[in-house]
Amino acid sequence: MTQQNSVQKHHGAEIELLSFRLGEDEYCVGIMSVREIRGWTRPTPLPHAPPHLRGVINLRGTVLPVVDLSLRLGMDPVGGDARNVIIVVQINGHAVGLLVHAVSDILALESDDLQPPPETAGSDGARFISALAIVDERMVRILNLEAVLPDLTVEAA
Amino acid sequence: MSDPMAEIREGFFAECEELLESLQDGLQTLSESAAPDAEAVNVTFRAVHSIKGGAGAFGLDTLVGFAHRYESVLDLLRSGKLDLDPALMRLLFRAADLLQDHVRAAHEDDPTVPEGSADCLEALDALAGADPAEPEPEVTDFQPLVLSFGDFGSEESSAALPSFMVLDSTSLADWEVRFHPRTELYRSANEPLYLLRTLTDLGATEIVCDGDIPPLEDLTEDSAEICWRIVMPGHLSETEIREVFDFVDGLCDLTIAPLPLAEVEENSEPPAPWPPVPAPPPTGEQTKDAPPAPAGPKPESAPGEPPPAREAHGEAAATVRVNLDRIDRLVNLVGELVITQAMLAQSVAEAGLQPNASLRSGLDSFTLLTREIQDSVMMIRAQPVKPLFQRMARIVREAAAATGKDVQLRPLGETTEVDKTVIERLSDPLTHMIRNAVDHGIEPPEKRIEAGKTRTGTITLSARHRAGRLEIELSDDGGGINRKRVLETAIARGLVPADAPLGDAEIDNLLFLPGFSTAKSVSALSGRGVGMDVVRSAIHALGGRVAIRSEFGKGTVFTISLPLTLAVLDGMVISVAGETLVVPLSSILETAAMRPDDVRTVAGSTPVLQLRGSFVPLCDLGAEMGYHAQRPVVRDGTVLVTALENGNRAALIVDEIVEQRQVVIKGLGDSYGRIPGVAAATILGDGRIALILDPADLVRNMTRAGRAQPLAV
Amino acid sequence: MSLSVLAVDDSRTIRDMLGLALGSAGIEVHLAEDGIAGLEALEGLTPDAIISDINMPRLDGFGFIEAVRRLERFRATPILVLTTEAAPELRARARAAGATGWIVKPFDPPKLVRALHMVAGQEDA
C-alpha cells in the first residue's frame, strides 16, 4: 500500500499538488492529472449506479461522470451547493469529475516531504492514500486515483 | 496522408470492395438469367481483371495469381468456350468469395493463403486447361520481353552497306540500324521523327536519310518511301535499341546489326556471326503498301464489342473519397450545432419576445437550416445495405455447403441506405440469424420434397425504409417453428411455468430467452450456445427491435427495425420525479391518461393497466429509475405505452410530457458499465444531460426483479 | 511546354496512379473512366497524347480508339494502350484500331513518361 502512483517520486524532485477539502480533512492529487476545475452543477443521476457515482454532467458536449469523492472515501456525501467544486481529472485516458467540498491550494512539495501512510489495515479510506505530508502543520493526504477509481483503470491501455 | 502511393493503395482496396460488389452482382445476374447474359459475364470479367491490374501495380503477387487464374476461366466463358452449368456457377461464386479473402489478406499484409484457395485454383485451372506452373506474364515489367517479331533482318543484306568508319572508345561494335517505316506506321500516329529523336537521345552518332524520295508533288503525309540508316553506339544492347521501336514493331522494316569494326584485329567480340535473323513471320509480307493489317487475324470483326451503355453505370454520379474521421468530426460538430441551436431556442423562448420579433423568425430559419445540415451530414454516412447483403449471400452459400442443404438467398431492396455504423454493427447478428435460418429453418432437400416444396430452400433478405427507420426482414420458407417442442424445452428448462397459458407469439418469443436452445445437438454451424438472445441484445444495442413470426411448415420471418442513424433520434422529452428523460419516439405506441378504474393488480401486487380491453403491465418509471422509493400502486396520471420487441407492450407512468424533439445521441462511455434501461444520453437545451431510455430493456429488467410474470418477457 | 495527356481507365486505382506518375513528371493529366467519358472529355480537350485501357464498361479501348481515329482532329494524336496482356494478337487488334503503342500494366512510371515524350515528340524534361 505504499505505491505512489499519482505523484512523481524522484528524489528531491518538486511535486505540484492540487489540494482540496473533504469535510474537515485536506486531500490532494497530482496537478498533472487535473484538467480543469468547474463549479457545482447538479449531475444527472444514473439509475442503479453506486451511491458515490453522483451522475453525469455536460463537459463541453461530452458526458462526464461525477464521483462524490467524500462518499467514495467512506465519509459523508458532499452536499452540493454553490461552494462545492468538481475537479476534472484524467486517469488512464478517461476524464472523470471529482466532487469535493472546496479547492484549497496548489502545493509544491519535495518528494522527501512525503511519508508513507501508516498501515491501518481494514480501514477503507487508507488504501486510497498513497502518501502523507505535513504542510503548515496540517496533514495533507495524497490520493491514489487509480485506487479511488478502479473502474477506470481496468481498461487502461 | 503524406505518402501518395499509400493513399492510392488504400484507394485500391476501397475500389476492390466496389469491384467485388459488381462481381457478386454479375454472378447473381448470371445465376438468375436463363440465357447467358453477355454483359453480366463482361461485368464479372472486368471486375476480376481490374482487381488483378491494380494488385499488380502494388506487387500483390498472390492476389494477382489468384485473380489471373479466375479471370482466365471468365475469359473462356466470355468467349463462349465454356458452358455455364450449375457446377461452374458454384465454382465462380466460390472463387469470388475466395477472391474477397485474398483481397482482405493482401490488404492486411497477411501472408496466409486463404483457406480453400488451392482446391478452388485447381478446379479453375482444370477448366482453363492452364498449366498451374506457368508464371503469369502480366507481372512483367513495363516492356514485355521483346518478341522476336520477324520484320527485320530481311531483304537488305549487310553487304549493301557502305563501309563506314566509326571510331569508338569501346571495343564493342556499334550498331547499324536500318529503319523503313511502312504506311501503317504513319496511320497509327507514330512519327519517325520522334523515334529518331529518341535514338539521338540514346546517343545516335549518325542518321542518314535513305531511300527513294519521291518528288515533292507525289509526297503524301503517310507515304512510305523514306527510310533511315542510323548508327548507334555499341555500348547499348540490341534490346535497348529495339525497345525504341517497340510500338512500331511490325509497322516498319527494321534491322539492327553490329557494324563491322574498323580495326579488324580487335575483332574478338561477337559481332561476326550476327545477327541471328529469325525466320520472317508468316504475316511478314514485304508489300510496301499493305492494307493496315500487318498482323493479327480479324481486326474489324472484334469480339467483345463494346456493350451498350447500361442503366446504372450510365449516369455514374461523380464521387469523392473522404476519410471517415473527417466525416465523423463533421457529424460531431453538427451534433454540437444542434445542441447550441436548442440552447439558443430556449434562451429566446425565455426572453419572452414578441411573437413577431425578428429574432424569432431568424431563429426559425436557423432551426430549419440546422435540421437540413444535419440531414445532409447524416446522408454522407449513409450507405446502401448491398455489401452487407452480399456478405450474407456468402454466409448462405457456406452454411448450405456445411449442412448439405440447397439454399439460395434472395436479396431485396439492396439499395436501401442506412448509416454505415448501423450496417457494420448489423453484420454479426444478421450472420447469426442467417446461419440459424439455414441450419434450423430450411429443411434437408429430401424433407422438402416430401413436404411438396422445391428442393432448394429460399431465404429472403429485404431492406426498406419505413416510418423513418430501416426495416430488415429475414424470412425462410423452411419448416417454421415447432411450437410444441419450443414450449416443452422452455418448460423443461424452467423458463416458463408448466401451466403457463402461452399464445403462439409468446411461444415464438421464447426463442429470444437467454440460453434457450431447441437444437437436439449443438450444431457446429450456428453454434447454438449463443442463442437468439445475443442477437436480440446486439440489435437492441443499435436502438433496434426484432420480432418473429412463424407458420409451422411454411417458414419463419424475423423483422428487424433499426434507426437510420446512431447519431440522432426523435424522442419524447418527459419529466419524472423532477428528472428529465428522453424516450425514443420509435418505441412509443401512444400516450394515454390513466383512470383509477383502469388499474388492476394481478398476482397480488403486479399492477396492470386496462387499455381497450387488454392488460398492459404498468411500470412506475420514477421508482424503476431509482428517483424515488417504491410507491403504492399509482392510479392516475399519464402513461406512455411502449412497444417491446416481442410485440408486447408496457405502460410507463410519467409526470409530464414536455415536448417532442430530435436529440443528439451521446454515448455514456464505458466507465460505469451498462445501465439497465438506459440506452444513451443527450444534452438538452439547458445544457444539462438527459438520459435516453430503452423502455424494453427497462421493462425486461423490471421483469427480472420478479415483479411481473414471465409472460411479459 | 508541358505535355497534356488524356488517360482513360475504368480502374480508379490505375487512374490515381497515372495521375500521380504523370502529374509528378510535370505532365498535365486529364482522366476519364471509360471510352464514352473519354470521348466526352475530348470534346473540350486537345491532348498531346492519349492513354487508354482496353477492358472498360460502356465503350472499351478498341472502340474508343477507333472512335478517336475517326475524328479528324485526332488522326495524328498518339494513343498508347494500357494492357495487362502481352499477347501479340491483342496488340495487333489495338494497332488495327489505331493505337500508336502499348504499355503493359503494371507500368513503370519513368518508362511511361519516356514513352509519352517519345510518341508525342517532346524531349524529356
UniProtKB/TrEMBL annotation, chain A:
CheW-like domain residues: 14-154
Superkingdom, taxonomy of origin: Bacteria
Matching SUPFAM superfamilies, A to Z?
Answer: CheW-like
InterPro entries (alphabetical):
CheW, CheW-like_dom_sf, CheW-lke_dom
Q: What biological-process GO terms show up in the record?
A: chemotaxis; signal transduction
Q: State the GO CC annotations.
A: cytosol
Q: Which PANTHER family match?
A: CHEMOTAXIS PROTEIN CHEW (PTHR22617:SF23), CHEMOTAXIS SENSOR HISTIDINE KINASE-RELATED (PTHR22617)
**Record-given protein name:** Chemotaxis protein CheW
Q: Report the source organism.
A: Paenirhodobacter enshiensis
Automatic annotation (TrEMBL), chain C:
Supply the InterPro entries for this chain: Bact_response_regulator, CheY-like_superfamily, Sig_transdc_resp-reg_receiver
Q: PROSITE patterns per the record?
A: RESPONSE_REGULATORY
* Modified positions (4-aspartylphosphate) in chain numbering: 53
Q: What region holds the Response regulatory domain?
A: 4-120
**Which superkingdom is the protein from?**
Bacteria
- Note whether Mitochondrion occurs among the keywords: no
Q: What is this protein called?
A: Fis family transcriptional regulator
Instruction: Please give the organism.
Output: Paenirhodobacter enshiensis
Source organism lineage? Bacteria, Pseudomonadati, Pseudomonadota, Alphaproteobacteria, Rhodobacterales
